[in-house]
Here is the input.
Amino acid sequence: MRGAILLGVNRQDNPQSSGKGYRHPVTASLSRRFTRLAAINVASNLLVPLAGLVDVAILGHLDDVRHLAGVALGAVIFDYLLWTVGFLRMGTVGPTARAAGRQDVVETQAILVRGLGVAAVLGGGLLLASGWLSSAGFGLLAGTPVVEEAGRAYVAARFWGVPCAAGSMVLLGWFLGQEQAGRALVMTAVGSLTNIALDVWFVWGLGWGAEGAGWATAASQALTLATGLALAAPALRHRAGVWARARDPGALQELAGLSRDIVIRTFFLVTVFATFTSLSAGMGTLVLAGNAVLIKLLGAGAWLIDGYAFATETLAGQADGAGDRRGLRRILALSVGASVTTGLVLSSALVLAPGPVLGLLTDQAPVLAEATRHVLWLFPVLGVGSAAYALDGYFIGLTAGRTLRRAMAISALIGFVPLATWAWRDSDPTRLWAALAVFMVLRVLTLGVAVPGTLRDEGSTPAA
Here is the structure.
């Protein structure tokens, strides 16, 4: 199976092979490929929030709630940093998938080299600026002095893992773009399971509290990067033209444009959730802790549904690279159907029986009561909003950065901001959840109206 190492297909699928056995990978059964990729990606994605849920469970069972609240506040800074630099994964998977659809092996390798170079520069710069970024972040966030102290300790430790996290994003996108979801699963499993083990050791065993959670995450991110590089090494045998292609000014300019759009799109997304957390903190430590529990559940559901989105990124990009519009339609139908069904099932289960799940995350009765008050909002936010994850994956695969940027800006500025401002003025957590629900529904609508233009039979899919 070494012949599958770049394009995720057997040697007989090589376009240079002769004989009647050749079959372009994009023409294979989309249902089977989608199911296989989604299953692996779902398993991989569930491991990511699992580590976060363990964080909450361990900190939530400490005697002092400030550690849980402090990590919730400090995590907002990394939401900005790591979700914003998420363009390293999203900006890699689409171009890689399209290159795989064209059977361009040299460009596939060049994309990895180019992405890792950007990740090294960006990650190193963020680490050097960590002190300033931490001070600026906590200057904008609202929290009591003891909560902020715990949050700062968490942030200072976790920053050491940022360069490794940046490099891992590139590798994950590169593997996913070639349908090598199994390799992405190995990376994620190593990182998440290490994070969980170190959480238990540092927080409970050594009593480091919030700081221990930060060190556990940083160490696990370093091991994740090392695992990814080891898995990618066999595919990086020297090929003529790879280094020249990686430095090509046109390719770098295209990457910069796509990255800019994805960064702006992600900035709006993270700002919405950061504002939600900050406004929760301004309404009291209890509201912050209760909402933090629900946001962790929302994140777990979102990561699960993103397994479908990741499969969509890969298959949509490959179909677009091969000029297969019929395949695009089929992929979109599979993705939206699976995402919405899963989102409705998960949100309904959480709404109908919140007690058992919430009880796993914290045993503090006031926090449980506060979270239960607002659990109904998971239905519109996760159930209805699940279609947005599928549509995100579709447009990421098509490298349609402008569409993603425009839809997210409209949803944040028109959907979230007015209701969130109203909630802040009256210190009303219910209205704050309503603002998040409207934001998610608008994401579905603004992305949905852009779909027909990508499915025209003539010409290529626009990148705008």
Observations:
- Confidence is low (pLDDT under 50) at residues 1-27, 458-464.
- The longest helix spans residues 285-321.
- The two ends are 37 Å apart (CA to CA).
- Residues 3 and 11 are 5 Å apart (CA to CA).
